[in-house]
Specification:
Radius of gyration: 22 Å
Number of strands: 0
Number of helices: 14
Structural class: mainly alpha
Helix content: 55-70%
Strand content: under 5%
Shape: globular
């Protein structure tokens, strides 16, 4: 059986190498704090394996997370010296390779989809699954990332094998602490649900939804998913809260909605909120940083005219097809 832990360890090693690079960069005035940020993050990936196996205490990871938050609040990680090509060189490379530049990026979704849809069902001779149960897509993402790296190296033929690591560091420093914001927000959603926030929201919604009004309940669930996603930055974080408050007790239990349709469309409604919030850094702020846009909120401003009517469409789709 192929387990997912190797991918987590690979991520950890990558972040540790980034930390070592940052610490050796004398041009970075924030190299100590930045190196500590990436180093703590990298070591946490490896240490997490022992926590899952109950061979190490989990509270140390909690301290590491607090340490990352403190460093981010103090302005770390900072940017080091730029290691990139000039605009003229980029234009020349774009003319030379054309659409082939998209090949490494396209490898990732294709391979990850194959793992999630096909290899996840493959069984070994003893009846055990080939891939660890529940982790097929993540394992596929790890394999796809490695294959994309190989394709990129073969296609672009960089002068040094260390170029991907240097460019990875440059991009991480450009993005900063926002690179780990999605993971933090997803965890926050689980904490909210475990602490009873969903039930508290449910008590509030009881006073907002007219008794027996299906359309009001559907609208409240979808709009609530979008609003909580805007606040938390992650639809997966908003999902347990709004589902515990409205989705399950009202739409499924009271109005006999089809769970698969209710929850699938509910997630799509949450994604409408993703398009509208800077908290969804990986979707909105990161592209603005990578594309070096003058307006860091440019993607959000361009997406809002799509998000609002799409939310209305999701409300209609749920109302028509889920009941």
């Amino acid at each position: 059986m192929i387990k997912v832990e190797w991918f987590y360890w690979l991520c950890g090693i990558f972040f540790v190498l980034i930390a070592l690079q940052v610490l050796n960069d004398r041009s970075n005035p924030k190299r100590l704090g930045s190196g500590a940020f990436w180093g703590i993050l990298g070591l946490s990936f490896g240490y997490g394996t022992f926590v899952v196996d109950k061979q190490a205490p989990a509270w140390l990871l909690g301290i590491a997370v607090i340490g990352l938050a403190v460093l981010a609040g103090a302005g770390f990680p900072g940017k080091g010296a730029e290691r990139t090509t000039a605009p003229e060189e980029r234009a020349r490379f774009a003319d030379r390779f054309g659409n082939k530049l998209f090949l490494p990026a396209l490898v990732i979704p294709v391979v990850a989809a194959l793992f999630g849809a096909w290899l996840a069902k493959v069984k070994l001779g003893d009846g055990k699954p080939l891939l660890e149960t529940g982790s097929a897509t993540i394992i596929g993402l790890g394999v796809a990332s490695m294959l994309a790296l190989v394709v990129g190296m073969v296609l672009l033929r960089p002068m040094s094998p260390g170029v991907p690591l240097h460019e990875g560091r440059r991009l991480l420093e450009h993005i900063g602490w926002a690179a780990i914001l999605p993971q933090m927000l997803a965890t926050l959603g689980l904490l909210f649900n475990a602490s009873g926030v969903g039930k508290a929201v449910g008590r509030v919604t009881d006073h907002l939804v007219p008794k027996g009004s299906l359309i009001a309940a559907v609208a409240l669930y979808c709009i609530g998913m979008a609003v909580f996603t805007i606040i938390m930055g992650n639809a997966f974080a908003a999902f347990p809260v709004m589902t515990a408050a409205v989705g399950w007790p009202l739409l499924v239990q009271q109005f006999d909605g089809t769970p698969a349709v209710v929850f699938a469309v509910g997630m799509l409604a949450g994604f409408c909120g993703t398009l509208c919030t800077p908290m969804a850094a990986n979707f909105n702020l990161v592209p603005a940083a990578l594309l070096e846009m003058k307006d860091q909120y440019g993607p959000i401003k361009a997406q809002i005219p799509t998000a609002v009517p799409l939310l209305a469409c999701n409300i209609l789709i749920m109302y028509v097809f889920a009941f």
